[in-house]
Amino acid sequence: MTSEHATTLIGERFGSAQVENGPPLTVTLPVDAWLPFAQFAKDELRCRYFSFLTAVDWKDQGLDVVLKIDNVDDNLSLIVKTRLEPGVSSCPSLTPLYRGANWMEREAYDMFGIVFEGHPDLRRILLTDDWEGHPLLKSYAVDTPHPPYR
Amino acid sequence: MSSATPTRVELDYAGSERLTMNMGPQHPSAHGVFRAVLTLEGETVIDVDAVIGYLHRCHEKLAETLTYAQYPSIASKTDYVAAMTSEFAYVRAAEMIGKIEVPQRAEYLRVLVSELQRVASHLLWLGTWCMDMGGALGGGATIFLYTIRERELILDLFESLVGARLLYGFFQVGGVRYDLPDGWAASCLETVDVLDGRISEYERMLEDNPFFMARAEGVGVISRELAEDVGISGPLLRGSGVAYDLRRAEPYSVYGDLDFVVPVESSGDCLARYRVRMVEFRESLKIVRQVLDTLPAGPVSSRPGLKSVAQTRIPKGEAYARIEGARGEVGCYLIADGSAKPYRMKWRGASFSNLAVLPHIIPGHKVSDIVAIMGSVDPVFGEVDR
Amino acid sequence: MPEWLLPVIAPFVVLNAIIGIVTYVTLLERKFAARMQSRIGPYRVGPHGLLQPIADAIKLMMKEDIVPTAADRPVYNLAPIVFLAPCMFIFATIPFAPGLGVADLNIGILFFLAISAMEIVGLFMAGWGSNNKYALLSAMRAVNQVISYDLPFIFSALTPVLLAGSLRLSDIAMAQEGLWFVFYPVLGQLAFVLFIVSTVAAENRAPFDILEAESELVAGFRVEYSGMKFALIQLGEYAHILGASFLGALLFLGAWSGPGPEWLGPVWFLIKAMCVFLLVTWVRWSFVRIRVDQILALSWKALLPMTLLLLLATAFVVVWRHSGVA
Known about the structure:
The structure holds 3 protein chains of 3 kinds.
Chain A: H1 3-13, E1 18-20, E2 25-29, H2 34-43, E3 49-57, E4 63-71, E5 76-84, E6 90-92, H3 101-112, E7 115-117
Parallel strand pairs in A: 2-5, 6-7
Antiparallel strand pairs in A: 1-2, 3-4, 4-5
Chain B: E1 19-23, E2 35-41, E3 44-51, H1 59-65, H2 71-75, H3 83-98, H4 104-134, H5 139-162, E4 171-172, E5 175-176, H6 184-207, H7 210-216, H8 224-230, H9 235-239, H10 246-249, H11 270-294, E6 317-324, E7 329-336, E8 342-348, H12 350-355, H13 358-361, H14 367-377, H15 381-385
Antiparallel strand pairs in B: 1-2, 2-3, 4-5, 6-7, 7-8
Helix pairs in contact in B: 3-4, 4-5, 4-11, 4-14, 5-6, 6-11, 11-14
Chain C: H1 6-36, H2 52-62, H3 73-89, H4 108-116, H5 119-129, H6 133-164, H7 169-175, H8 187-202, H9 227-252, H10 265-284, H11 292-325
Helix pairs in contact in C: 1-2, 1-9, 1-10, 2-9, 3-5, 3-9, 5-6, 6-7, 6-8, 6-11, 8-9, 8-10, 8-11, 9-10
């Protein structure tokens, strides 16, 4: 599975995806293609290695969810991104597909408030359960106090 | 990870009493602050909920407020047992976005300290793991004191190089901060020779010991499928039969020019992880010897002296830099917006993913096995909680 | 000295001597362990750390006595005493030299073994009364382990009994005048090895210290004890080990026999007991702990059949030799 081969396969199956050649190969998708693409990447591109999942806050342009998966046999790395429009805070969960997504999605929920639909156990992971706000959002200022103090 | 964990083991004698027991956050073998809420049936664990976050210091938010010159020394506080490799990931990400040239000598020095750091970190792992299994008041403590004695030798080397023993701030964008002092290479070679002999000693001490083998063999098996699915890395992944080492798969720095072996074991148990790390000890020492032999002359940094910390600016862009740390894939996903500070930094701690495998493998084991498995995973909670 | 005073003075002297020796045995162990681990060990209090045990004792006495709110108070408070008492009683039957002991019973070894197994009551009380889950698990393990290992412990101790033909400890010691039982061909060495292994296990010492298991159960049954109560438990534990070491020296190493005048006998006995103790300590500081199911398997599947076979073999040898003589 070379990176060119992967690019053609992605182009055939997901017309809506933009592919930037890497490495790592970067694929940008609409939200509704998120879960099907992950399934496709795991089965057909054999990207079975779950590296990480996170999010980026682009302020008034919405949130990016970023996923990194690898095919360790063919040394193919894939970064998959999807944009959640402003006001949208839900995204399909990858936990049924990759067990590693469990903690990573909990962390993204903790830090960005993204609700992963279908996650079996979406709780805060790093912060305490009664924490207010989601610290990695750009609107969560570092220099203003956030009562209650902890 | 409570009710929905698919690996939950149902035992057939229903009606027996179950015990919920907190292991941690303050516990002798928690390796930091980790809390495992165990559901026990007798001595057998049937369910575990792993609670992390006690050491969370909002590294990712902090990175957005610190310049590229300031953050590397903070990055070393993520994985404080292998601080050098943590710094490496961050500066490499910044260099990838900014396309900053790094002098050859600096690259060699980076590899040199990373490998020494790997040895130091594995030494601490061996000691603490044996202490988990053998107890601070038993044979484990004996091995712990031996490995700590050897780790001191490496820390002494780092101290004479950087001036610090735990958190270094040795790496900077564009190179490294200091060149080797006079006579450092000779004392380093001496240390490497000493370590080589001592590692054989540990192997004899442990592998000829039937109790050690009984505790490690067949315990905490991670299948290859589970390993990839959860995304564990480093010695754990290689212990589960995946020959994946970033120094080989994606040769960064000067690893492409160096000769070393990537050990792989297929059984996936604690013993396999132990064997992988024991080989890595020797391979790292081999790399250190090669680097000292072929160390090129020249400057150690391509970056001029700074007038202010905000002077290093990285152009707009993003990169994911990953390196093979002592515990596995240490990744830094950096997004730069053209200013002196990153727009966003995601830290992929190797320990975070490695620890995430615990709830999948612990159910069905005995209480005593938990500490053996925890130790063989070798988590550093600075990196898990960031 | 009136006759009736002796039974009062003798236990008093022995008890105090034991407490004194136990205090210094801890220092011996710490020094020995330190040497094994390429350290120096206690060095600051007094010359070569010789006053360290006294400093430890003072420290423990001055600590605050903390009782958990939810503890079962009567059980919790009584446990250290119940634990300590049998550990001290076992010295009653040990003759430190011919005629020098509290009571040289004709069933001495039976008394020793029976009383020594009683420590489990105190252990379990401590684990149960603390109302702590670590302590409870540890108490469960303790019952498992002590029951499993007292059998091989007793059976291996019976081999010298058969060889000597008496249950009286002084008789067993006398029977070794010519040949220490550890040098008795084959049987002696096997019995000694099995005795050491089961001593280590029955005393809950590493690598069989699953009930203390500080990396799993923090400190096991004594996790909630502090100050003087903790000191009593420690004292009991070391006294028990010391008692077992004396028993080992008596059963296998010829007790007080040794070169020099007769008054050196007790000194020889002490030296031999210390050798047994250091052997146990050596094992402790070189092995990692084994798991509870492995410990039980080792006892029931290996040690118990082996000690039984050995006992049988010894009986045959003894009968054969007696009939040969007769």
